Amino acid sequence: MKNALVTGGSGGIGAAICRRLAADGCHVYIHAHRGHQAAQALADEICAGGGSAQVLAFDVTDSAVVADVLTPLVEHQPIQILVNNAGIHDDAVFPGMRAEQWHRVMDVSVNGFFNVTQPLMMPMIRSRWGRIINVSSIAALTGNAGQVNYSAAKGALNSATKSLAREVASRGITVNAVAPGIIDTSMSESAFSAEDIARMVPMKRAGSPTEVADLIGFLASAQAAYITGQIISINGGMI
Ligand code: NDP
Keyword Oxidoreductase: yes or no (predicted)? Predict the structure, then answer.
């Protein structure tokens, strides 16, 4: 049984990814920050259905705490599937964007990627098999007014994906990013109205978290061994 860690497993897309990886036979570490209760309920649901899951809680921006939790965890058995899904947006038109909004969004996506991924790397490399999937955004591909911070953070994640993929390709580890368009979660609810969605998405609907999770489940599988360094967008035809 492979160990998988999904950051932001307490959120809309993250929960769907956890369910999918558990259904595929992984032991799933469901990571939460403030949503510990939601993550515990999800772990209980997965275990009640015969799967295997447990909750890990930390702020991905706190490098010392993240290392304290993850380093002992991978000492004896590597986490071979990592989904860096935790992310926030804090939108403002650029002239009015506060420095704090810029730094926080970058901190969660970019420093969070570093803090969580690095402690898992050496054990994953030693095991000669791994899947790292970073949840990016269409905003990094098209740009989006009001999201200079968010698109910059996700753009950094895309570039990190490509470079890390080259570093570890010969070790049987793939590194890819999935860039969703508008997906039906509380995050998108606050950003897009039904009219926005009808105007922006050729399929005239938001995607579901399960549709994103199915793509990530495939990228995490043995069948996806030759896909690496890619930014794969799932967006109902937006681009
Ligand atoms: P949610 O708001 O539902 O989930 C976000 C998750 O990130 C939560 O589990 C939250 O944990 C976690 N998180 C936030 N800040 C921190 C932090 N400092 N430390 C640790 N965890 C943190 O959003 P979605 O499910 O919609 O988004 C998931 C990912 O998908 C994000 O990276 C987002 O940018 C990306 N995305 C979403 C799109 C959409 O339309 N929904 C479109 C494109 C990309 P907790 O709640 O426990 O605090």
Answer: yes
